[in-house]
Design goal:
One of its GO terms (molecular function) is pyrroline-2-carboxylate reductase activity. Belongs to the ornithine cyclodeaminase/mu-crystallin family. InterPro entries: NAD(P)-bd_dom_sf, ODC_Mu_crystall, ODC_N. The protein is of the alpha/beta class. The protein has two domains: 124 residues, ornithine cyclodeaminase, domain 1 (2-Layer Sandwich), CATH 3.30.1780.10; 181 residues, NAD(P)-binding Rossmann-like Domain (Rossmann fold). It is built from eleven helices and 15 strands. It binds NADPH dihydro-nicotinamide-adenine-dinucleotide phosphate and 3,4-dihydro-2H-pyrrolium-5-carboxylate. The site of NADPH dihydro-nicotinamide-adenine-dinucleotide phosphate has 25 residues, from α3 and α4.
Amino acid sequence: MASIVYISENRVRELLNWEETYKSIKCALESVSKERAFQDKRSAIKLGNTYNFLFSMCGGLSDKTYGGLGCKLFTYFPENFRKNEPALKANIFLLDEETGSLKAVIAAAHITDWRTAAASAVATKYLHSENNNVLAILGAGSQGKAHAMAFKYLFNFNKINIWNRTTERAKNVVDELNQNNDNTSANKVFVAYDSIKECVKDADVIVTATSGNETLLKLEWLKKGVHINAVRVNPVYRELEDDIYKSSDVYIDYWEGAKYELEGIKDLGVEFKGQIGDVIARVIAPPSSDRISVFQSLGMPVEDCAVARLVYDLHIASNV
Ligand SMILES: NC(=O)C1=CN([C@@H]2O[C@H](COP(=O)(O)OP(=O)(O)OC[C@H]3O[C@@H](n4cnc5c(N)ncnc54)[C@H](OP(=O)(O)O)[C@@H]3O)[C@@H](O)[C@H]2O)C=CC1
Ligand SMILES: O=C([O-])C1=[NH+]CCC1
């Protein structure tokens, strides 16, 4: 029996790049439209009388390059900051598609950040026209930062505005990103804001990636035809005010998850237009350019399978 490979967070960071992550996630998103994705909603177990949760996301993706079979197990312990530990801890168990044997255990916090940002990037490419001058990001946590990096790399935004509840954190992230980008330029691409309204008012594309229970974004602040990637996942709390959903064309990643986790949005009387994969596969049309579009992201098991396969192949290929 072949030995089981362990791939650490640091090794994942060395291996992943945005081009391949984007391609693997585009493949995973499209697979739901081509009956090449086998997955169900994620399971969530509340751990007793705490706010701690254990989640699992299992599935299989059939594809020559990015196909994989596996399961991501992750915990969300919100009080971990008291121990100086991240709230989210994740590992993917990658299985052999022929036999079901365990091939690898891959640390998956970085994978989760990158594949979620790549999914927003794919949704933006397929739902939004090429008018991408200003990007606004609400939230400078792990997801906010990964989105800032992905969108800088994959698009041509002239300005990337970042708002965070704690302004100091937005400033720190902006300084770090400007330094990595080009520390000689007088016109810094990344700019920190302490007002949400100011941050989003000129934005062509918006990402919301916070974990609070507050409604952050108002319809009256938005430009006509803006595209929004709504990343926060919670069945009750939403970052966008209800009027935004009611006035927009709303797309999702997969029906199996949406049926359970997005009931609150459906209860507003919002009919989802369909899956991003259906737009990629040209089964449904993208929105017209004067409409507000929303990608309501949940995160799919097959996204994790696709990136786990990518990381595994890169690891094996460079581990000679
Ligand atoms: N769609 C998907 O596939 C995925 C979605 N997610 C979702 O992304 C979101 C962000 O996750 P992640 O970046 O990892 O989390 P982090 O813990 O790294 O960051 C949390 C962010 O939320 C902000 N925040 C917390 N409370 C509030 C509040 N009341 N009002 C405004 N902002 C607040 C924090 O601001 P501050 O710095 O001030 O504390 C910080 O910017 C979560 O909701 C998570 O569920 C995560 C993974 C995948
Ligand atoms: O898809 C995912 O991994 C997650 N979605 C919400 C929290 C984590």
